């Protein structure tokens, strides 16, 4: 008998090999949540179709992401890990939910306006309904909680409102309002020292990169812009290298950098070398596990297939209740 608190759902687009921003912002939390909750983790490939122009890399990106998730510590024998399109019930629920969602509510969403701005030549019907599909993802598995950063809270509120609309329209209680599990998501800045770490900006460090590649990327990191010469004192408070030291270095090393940087006692090159060394040491067990998993990617596909099978059992139960509540013949 499981003594876990309930079911958590989270999904992420198949973006391929994951970077430190993905790891610190989501994957680490996914791993930790498994101790408290029954977790359902979904690679949302259908969501990706709303904005991608080619699906050429979709399969490869999916397996790369799954490899990172599993190597990082997601336990598929415990958690359900699967691909969204392998559970077609989500598309059916999406359709039903769309009937209780006013169009104006979707087009007024700031996220929709932002998407139009980013993809002005591809404003498709799926893009408008994106939050409805996202709600269907959560509601299909009757998740009791969804881990989100503060900025994503409106998405969960949207899902909660959708539950109320559906249950009211069909005079039922078959859909469950998910609770928000607000998570402290650290904003991980890229190696440019300015923008959020992202693959598209090429300011990222892949967690599965080799030690050499990692060191190369760390050495490219932008530091305190005021520190022009080795003899100039620096300010770690405005230096992204220092932010990473706080995560990957020992308290003694952090203290040393904090003190020595301010009096030019340590140069940026040595400071970065230390970070690269610590980062590589911290990621070494993950990389070793990933290398093992990579030897048999068929087994990783099997994990995803098995996850879909288990997800469909839950999905089918929900859909039986949903169809009945609607009164479908
Ligand atoms: Fe940043 Fe380290 Fe250089 Fe100080 S010594 S500016 S913390 S890289």
TrEMBL record:
<dbReference type="GO" id="GO:0005829">
    <property type="term" value="C:cytosol"/>
</dbReference>
<dbReference type="GO" id="GO:0004830">
    <property type="term" value="F:tryptophan-tRNA ligase activity"/>
</dbReference>
<keyword id="KW-0030">Aminoacyl-tRNA synthetase</keyword>
<dbReference type="GO" id="GO:0005524">
    <property type="term" value="F:ATP binding"/>
</dbReference>
<dbReference type="InterPro" id="IPR050203">
    <property type="entry name" value="Trp-tRNA_synthetase"/>
</dbReference>
<protein>
    <recommendedName>
        <fullName>Tryptophan--tRNA ligase</fullName>
        <ecNumber>6.1.1.2</ecNumber>
    </recommendedName>
</protein>
<keyword id="KW-0547">Nucleotide-binding</keyword>
<comment type="similarity">
    <text>Belongs to the class-I aminoacyl-tRNA synthetase family.</text>
</comment>
<dbReference type="InterPro" id="IPR014729">
    <property type="entry name" value="Rossmann-like_a/b/a_fold"/>
</dbReference>
<dbReference type="GO" id="GO:0006436">
    <property type="term" value="P:tryptophanyl-tRNA aminoacylation"/>
</dbReference>
<keyword id="KW-0436">Ligase</keyword>
<keyword id="KW-0648">Protein biosynthesis</keyword>
<dbReference type="InterPro" id="IPR002306">
    <property type="entry name" value="Trp-tRNA-ligase"/>
</dbReference>
<dbReference type="Pfam" id="PF00579">
    <property type="entry name" value="tRNA-synt_1b"/>
</dbReference>
<keyword id="KW-0067">ATP-binding</keyword>
<dbReference type="InterPro" id="IPR002305">
    <property type="entry name" value="aa-tRNA-synth_Ic"/>
</dbReference>
């Amino acid at each position: 008998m499981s003594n876990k608190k309930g079911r958590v759902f989270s999904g992420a687009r198949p973006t391929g090999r994951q970077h430190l921003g993905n790891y610190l912002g989501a994957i680490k939390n996914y791993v930790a949540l498994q101790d408290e909750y029954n977790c359902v983790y979904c690679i949302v490939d259908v969501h990706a179709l709303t904005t991608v122009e080619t699906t050429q890399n979709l399969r490869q990106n999916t397996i790369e992401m799954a490899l990172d998730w599993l190597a990082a510590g997601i336990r598929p024998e415990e958690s359900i890990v699967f691909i969204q399109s392998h559970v077609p019930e989500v598309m059916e629920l999406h359709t039903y939910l769309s009937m209780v969602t006013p169009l104006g509510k979707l087009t007024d969403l700031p996220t929709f306006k932002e998407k139009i701005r980013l993809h002005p030549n591809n404003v498709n019907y799926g893009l408008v309904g994106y939050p409805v599909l996202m709600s269907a993802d959560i509601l299909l598995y009757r998740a009791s909680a969804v881990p989100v950063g503060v900025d994503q809270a409106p998405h969960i509120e949207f899902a909660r409102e959708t539950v109320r609309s559906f249950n009211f329209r069909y005079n039922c209680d078959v859909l469950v309002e998910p609770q928000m599990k607000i998570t402290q998501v650290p904003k991980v800045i890229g190696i440019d020292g300015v923008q959020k770490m992202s693959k598209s900006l090429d300011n990222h460090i892949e967690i599965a990169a080799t030690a050499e590649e990692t060191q190369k990327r760390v050495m490219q990191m932008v530091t305190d812009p005021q520190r022009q010469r080795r003899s100039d004192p620096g300010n770690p408070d405005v230096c992204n290298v220092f932010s990473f030291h706080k995560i990957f270095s020992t308290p003694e090393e952090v203290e040393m950098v904090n003190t020595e940087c301010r009096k030019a006692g340590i140069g940026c090159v040595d400071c970065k070398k230390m970070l690269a060394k610590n980062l590589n040491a911290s990621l070494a067990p993950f990389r070793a596990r990933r290398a093992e998993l990579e030897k048999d990617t068929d087994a990783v596909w099997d994990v995803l297939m098995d996850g879909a099978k288990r997800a469909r059992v839950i999905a089918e139960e929900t859909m039986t209740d949903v169809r009945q509540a609607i009164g479908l013949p």
